[in-house]
Design a protein that fits this description.
The complex is a heterodimer of chains A (about 290) and B (about 325).
Chain A (H helix, E strand, L loop, with lengths): L1 H13 L1 H32 L1 H4 L31 H37 L1 H16 L2 H12 L3 H12 L1 H15 L2 H9 L3 H12 L1 H24 L11 H8 L7 H28 L7
Helix pairs in contact in A: 2-4, 2-13, 4-5, 4-7, 4-8, 4-11, 4-13, 5-8, 6-7, 8-10, 8-11, 9-10, 11-12, 11-13, 12-13
Chain B lengths: L1 H28 L4 H11 L2 H10 L6 H13 L13 H36 L4 H15 L2 H15 L23 H7 L3 H38 L2 H8 L4 H31 L1 H6 L5 H10 L3 H29 L1 H5 L1
The chains are: A mainly alpha (about 290), B mainly alpha (about 325).
């Protein structure tokens, strides 16, 4: 009895402090932090795939085909007896690579184009934005599918197909951001000092308008990873023996009894994309003063 | 107002035609050859066959003439012939459209019915557990690959628990209802065939949940953000000062104002569902436009792809106009301007 009361006193005094502090930290960095952690883990996995993976990703072992998860094969084996875990680990390389490359390249291209349009105005703006609208007219997946089907399958071709349809949203966003910044005083000041238009755009305007772009880039990597995996799932992404998540789900889609073949690569996609969405959502709250949590 | 609408329709129609031109140019510059995908290796190695094939589909005409033939067709309501199905593209589209319309409308309704209340609750009870749940649900919905979600749903509810029917619009041995609209729910109800009605409804459950997942996340997030914005407006303080009940304030004052961005994004999401349900339809063997699009793209059936592009552009055009009209309904100030 006395023991209990004795113990109750310090906990009652001490506990609120760390818990409220933890809560404050969680509120400020929580979701973004979790997202960043997930992405870091997957990046490490992608880098260290050969070290982590218990088998070669394309080692066929027909005797042990469609084995359920066990200590020898943690995530089971697929229809050719290949280790699902090994393929999943190697698959992270393709997904992270393609997602990042597509988004970064189209972000750079779209931002420069949208920036030029907003900054130059007049005929140049009209031409650039009408081209942007034109590409936005196509549902991305349809155009990407047609291009991927026409160029032939393979990672590079699929990336090209995705790039063609990916950049317009960045051009649009960059244009609207630059238009807001263009009339600000500091831009005028930079002109007065005698900086050329290219320098003002690249060194002054774009750095000031970059916040929402970073949010879009972060959220969009997840989007690109899903789209690439989807094209792969449809048979338009990677050449078959390659270990890629969308293709792995596709290989397991008929195997309802052997659920592990399709379930684990799908979970891998879900977690990576969730990581990027957590991070992007967190950054958005963080940058937006109205949504910022107290 | 009328002039504004006509000019917008004209521009959008022009864009739609330009979009087909882009597809046409892509079709003729990329290294893929429809002759090879359609004829097969043996026939493609025979120059006589190849020449006859090209002549039959007009592939031997100069490029501008091929496109001119296509444009002339559009005016007459003729989108050309699909190389793969050997039928007019318009007939193909009209045949596959009802299945897609039925599925995406139900999925869209589902995501509105769940997403809007969830978004409202999340905004009103900001930072409470329901806000966090709403955030998690919408982020997971947006992050799930559709094709995988479809597999999981089929594996659990069809393969495992066996409480849901398998892929397709109806039981394999069932007959479709007599075609009036092509929507099985409507057609079967019209003739009072309730067995078929329930069969069709049961087949809609899994694909519409899968299709709704991503849209649900979008609707929830947009509703929440927009509600938060509106809740900070002056008129809310006035309403509170008048002593109005909080439910009245939220549903009567804040919600109508907060719905405009939801309508915009929701409308575009609906257009997206109508035109882009490729994954879901492929996995659920749903005989709709998504699967038709996929098959046309894979077989490089460019007349069909151009027809689909035109149709998609028209769908977006119509939905965008509907969005603008609904602004006027939601916000009387729009009309007065």
């Amino acid at each position: 009895m006395t023991d209990a009361t004795f113990q109750a006193v310090p906990t009652a005094v001490v506990q609120p402090v760390p818990s409220s502090r933890a809560r404050r930290v969680w509120r400020r960095y929580g979701l973004a932090g979790v997202g960043a952690a997930i992405i870091c883990i997957w990046l490490l996995v992608a880098l260290a795939a050969p070290l982590l993976s218990p088998y070669a990703p394309d080692a066929v072992d027909v005797v042990n085909r469609l084995q359920p998860p066990s200590t020898a094969h943690w995530f089971g084996t697929d229809a050719l007896g290949r280790d699902v875990l090994a393929r999943l680990l190697y698959g992270s390389r393709i997904s992270l690579f393609t997602g990042t490359v597509v988004v970064l390249l189209s972000a750079v291209f779209g931002t420069v184009l949208g920036g030029i349009a907003a900054y130059a105005g007049g005929k140049i703006e009209e031409v650039i934005m009408r081209i942007t609208d034109l590409v936005l007219c196509f549902p991305p997946i349809i155009l990407a599918m047609a291009i991927a089907a026409a160029l032939g399958i393979g990672i590079t071709n699929t990336i090209i197909a995705m790039l063609v349809v990916w950049w317009p949203k960045f051009a649009r966003l960059a244009r609207s951001l630059v238009i807001v910044q263009r009339s600000r005083e500091y831009v005028e000041a930079a002109h007065v000092v005698g900086f050329g238009p290219g320098r003002v755009l690249m060194r002054h305007i774009i750095p000031n308008a970059i916040g929402p772009l970073i949010v879009l880039v972060t959220l969009d990597v997840g989007n690109a990873i899903i789209t690439f995996a989807g094209l792969s799932f449809l048979g338009l992404g990677v050449v078959p023996p390659t270990a890629e998540w969308g293709a792995m789900v596709s290989e397991g889609r008929e195997l309802v009894e052997q659920w592990w073949v399709a379930t684990f690569p799908g979970l891998a996609i879900l977690t990576v994309v969730l990581g990027f969405n957590f991070l992007g959502d967190g950054i958005r709250d963080w940058l937006d003063p109205k949504a910022r949590r107290r | 107002m009328l002039r504004y609408i006509t000019s917008r329709v004209a521009i959008a129609a022009l864009m739609a035609v330009l979009a087909t031109l882009v597809i046409f140019l892509i079709a003729n510059t990329v290294p893929g050859d429809p002759v090879l995908t359609q004829l097969g290796d043996l026939a493609a190695s025979n120059p006589d066959y190849v020449a006859r094939f090209r002549a039959k589909w007009g592939l031997d005409l100069p490029l501008w003439e091929q496109y001119w033939v296509f444009l002339r067709g559009i005016v007459h309501g003729d989108l050309g012939m699909s190389i793969a199905s050997q039928r007019p593209v318009l007939d193909d589209i009209l045949q596959y459209a009802p299945a897609t319309i039925e599925l995406s409308t139900i999925a869209f309704a589902l995501s509105l019915l769940i997403g809007i209340p969830l978004g409202i609750l999340a905004a009103v009870r900001r930072d409470s557990w329901i806000d966090h749940v709403a955030r998690l649900v919408s982020l997971i919905g947006v992050s799930s690959p559709t094709f995988w979600l479809a597999f999981i749903m089929l594996a659990i509810f069809y393969g495992g628990l066996q409480i849901a029917p398998g892929p397709g619009r109806l039981d394999p041995i069932a007959f479709p209802p007599p075609t009036v609209t092509g929507l099985f729910l409507v057609d079967s109800a019209l003739v009072g065939d309730w067995d078929t009605f329930w069969d069709a409804a049961a087949h809609l459950v899994l694909p519409s949940i899968v299709l709704a997942a991503a849209t649900l996340g979008l609707i929830t997030r947009t509703t929440r953000a927009s509600m938060l914005e509106s809740l900070q407006q002056e008129y809310v303080r006035v309403a509170r000062a008048k002593g109005l009940r909080e439910t009245m304030i939220v549903t009567g004052h804040v919600l109508p104002n907060a719905l405009i961005p939801v309508v915009t994004l929701g409308g575009l999401a609906y257009a997206n569902l109508l035109t882009g349900a490729v994954m879901t339809e492929t996995i659920f063997s749903w005989p709709g436009l998504g699967r038709y699009t996929f098959q046309s793209a894979v077989s490089l059936d460019f007349p069909a792809i151009m027809g689909i592009t035109l149709m998609v552009a028209v769908v977006y055009l119509v939905i965008n106009l509907l969005i603008d009209f609904s602004y006027a309904l939601l916000d009387p100030r729009v009309v007065r301007r």
